[in-house]
Amino acid sequence: MSEGKKSLNFIEQIIEEDLKGSYTKQELKFRFPPEPNGYLHIGHASSICLNFGLGERYNAPVNLRFDDTNPIKEEQEYVDAIKEDVVWLGFKWDKECYASDYFQQLYDWAVALIKSGNAYVDSQTSAEIAEQKGTPTIDGKESPYRDRSIQENLELFDKMKNGETPEGAHVLRAKIDMTSSNMIMRDPVMYRSLHKKHHRTGDAWKIYPMYDWAHGESDFIESISHSFCTLEFLPHRELYNWFIGKVSDNEDFIPKQREFARRNLSHTVVSKRKLLQLVENKVVNSWDDPRMPTISGFRRRGYTPTSIRKFADTIGIAKRENIIDVSLLEFCIREDLNKIAPRVMGVLDPVKLVITNYEEEEEWLETENNPEDENAGTREIPFSKELYIEREDFKEEANRKFFRLSLGKEVRLKSAYIIKGESVVKDDAGNILEIHCTYDPKSKSGSGTEESLRKVKGTLHWVSIAHAIKGEIRLYDRLFTVAAPDADKEKDFIEFINPDSLQVITGYVEPSLKEASVADKFQFQRIGYFCIDKESTKENLIFNRTVTLRDSWEKLS
Ligand code: ATP
Ligand code: MG
After folding, report:
1. Tens-of-pLDDT digits for all 557 residues of the chain?
2. Which ligand neighbours the alpha carbon of 51 most closely?
3. Given 232, 257, 419, 471, which residue has the most CB atoms within 10 angstroms?
């Protein structure tokens, strides 16, 4: 289906309906509102692609808004990482906003709410408040402080603000309805005292607004037309509207909250809180560990922005939660890398191959950089008497289905010659130390001779031992052994960690890779896609396996 003809998702339908009604195209404005309490993950990528995608589709501004209302968990490091990820995905925000920039306005509005009898200071403990909340079928109880005088409320709130009351002594609550069938409407907390330094406002504030109070008001301040969030906020919509109703008047432009389903990826967890646990417990090395489902982890692993946007686009937006199999994401990166990644040769589990009748010292053979890209050109690779091939590409004796090298059989060495297995040299334990073969000098690839056109069943990759460079190869696998590690609430998701999610080996790669730089991506022919890790140096090349050439899990599960 072509881009233009794609059917509208339900979010786009909402907007189209609004455009037929009271909204103009010029009024459309969106935002992506991360809390800077961790690195963005693949679920956020869906939200980013949704909001910025709408911005592109309707030519409307999209703000990047940091929902920075909880100084206990938030840090500048996270703000910087989030910005880097959004830029990397290829999106441009209109304004960079912070909920903390609105602290004064939110405070002034809160004072106004106290004055109009819509908010009060509650001096109970949080346990007492929770106890009075009731249940969906049992009404809540009103706080004994609910009818404090406006004067007393104002004085106490002022003291809270100045840090003159201890943390936990008071909260500011909206005075709504303790019998509402929507639990969220039962006098929600608007402010709590926190005597903590904020990464942007420093020590200026001793009280911090709660999500519900800050979020909708921030949307209102920024004139956001549609505020999209995940489904757990559906019951908050009523409160969102109530708060905005209290601070706006009839002429004001009113934002609209709508919800979509959270995206989950199989064999991992997408929650900043849980990902933080993995980092803190050193299950992984960092937020951008290539096994992490963070955007920075995928970037370091060798994923491209194109592949992640393609993935988000393919899964689209849903009304119900489900788990997307990671093999779809792997499909997206294979598809992209197949087009753009130069082909190289690298041997990960080497066995020595000696071409007994090869008399030259060395020769340089021409090979294609990428058959999928006609502009990719060619390069020369060195060939010599002693090569490494992959251990699994040889069997002394093999059945007819084995199209690789065996004694008495012929295979082609990629971009080189046809060889024939002759004999093996073993150690006392019977391990193969060397494979001896002969080559057909007239069979050189691309030479056009009759011998070169001869069909052989298999083609092997190889490197010349004298020219190859050693590399550290990091082979990544799924971080969890089960599809939904956090599905069972009785169990700790950490129990399902795959102990073999990282294997480090030494491999041998062709010398052209000497000049490779961090993040460069390659296809190791017949093996998979790899990229240069950020810890790589000229002396110690480090490759991350992005993904294997084929899905090896499909047949296992
Ligand atoms: P987490 O639980 O991982 O911290 P969050 O929802 O608290 O996630 P925020 O930083 O508040 O994270 O989210 C920013 C935006 O991204 C919100 O609009 C949120 O709804 C959306 N979002 C977060 N996780 C997902 C997900 N898994 N799928 C789709 N959107 C998501
Ligand atoms: Mg959160």
Report:
1. 445 557 899 999 999 999 999 899 999 999 999 999 999 999 999 999 999 999 999 999 999 999 999 999 999 999 999 999 999 999 999 999 999 999 999 999 999 999 999 999 999 999 999 999 999 999 999 999 999 999 999 999 999 999 999 999 999 999 999 999 999 999 999 999 999 999 999 999 999 999 999 999 999 999 999 999 999 999 999 999 999 999 999 899 999 999 999 999 999 999 999 999 999 999 999 999 999 999 999 999 999 999 999 999 999 999 999 999 999 999 999 999 999 999 999 999 999 999 999 999 999 999 999 999 999 999 999 999 999 999 999 999 988 899 999 999 999 999 999 999 999 999 999 999 999 999 999 999 999 999 999 999 899 999 999 999 999 999 999 999 999 999 999 999 999 999 999 999 999 999 999 999 999 999 999 999 999 999 999 999 999 999 999 876 554 43
2. 1
3. 419
List beta partners, residue 500.
Answer: none
What is the C-alpha to C-alpha distance for residues 157 and 165, in angstroms, rounded to an integer? 9
**Amino acid at the residue 474:** R
Residue nearest ligand 1's atom 6 by CA: 230
Q: Which residues line ligand 1 (CB under 6 A)?
A: 33-35, 43-44, 46-47, 67, 229-230, 262-263, 270-273
Closest protein CA for atom 10 of ligand 1:
34
> Which of 47, 54, 263, 275 most suits a substitution to test ligand 1, by most atoms within 8 Å of the C-beta?
47
**DSSP E strands, 15-130:** 30-32, 62-66, 96-98, 119-122
User: What sign for the dihedral angle of Cα 280, 282, 283, 289?
Assistant: positive
Which-ligand-closest: CA of 272? 1
Q: Is the dihedral of CA 360, 362, 366, 367 positive or negative?
A: positive
Active site residues: 35, 262, 272
Q: Whose CA is nearest to atom 16 of ligand 1?
A: 44
For 263, the 3-state DSSP assignment is strand
